[in-house]
Amino acid sequence: MRASNKWDESIDKKNIKELKKIVYKVGWPDKKLVGVKAALGAWLIVQHGVFNIEFQKYCLGLLKKAVADKKMPQFTVPFLIDRIKMVEGKPQLFGTQFFKKTRSGKLHLWKIYNKKGIDKRRKKCGLEPLKNHKMVDQRIRYKYY
Predict the structure, then answer these.
(1) Inter-residue contact 62 to 74 (CB < 8 Å)
(2) 100: which strand partners?
(3) Where are the domains of the chain?
(4) What pairs with residue 108 in β-bridges?
């Protein structure tokens, strides 16, 4: 859906509804429980569930624990933190979020809190320096897991 640029928010809402059932029943669906592909898929559903910030925040706590237990890749936490910050209109901490300007169609980095310290924060989370950051297809991120 996202690759084709045919956005359908109803799909995101349906996915969040189903993921909520899973999360509230069994906790975070990590790689041990559902496998790598499904665990990252669950994270992407939450990442794109911007219309339900309360659920994103709830899942952030679960993700932090799953990362600490080495059941989810480290990059999932800073991406979700930044997404939540962006939805709230606040500066992001890790420089993971971009937005499209309507006229140009180009992606632009969302505002950043304390840009001087960003690479130090990114390094702590296992992310490359901001100048090296690229918009990478999430399938490539399996290597981090």
Answers:
(1) no
(2) 107
(3) 9-144
(4) 99
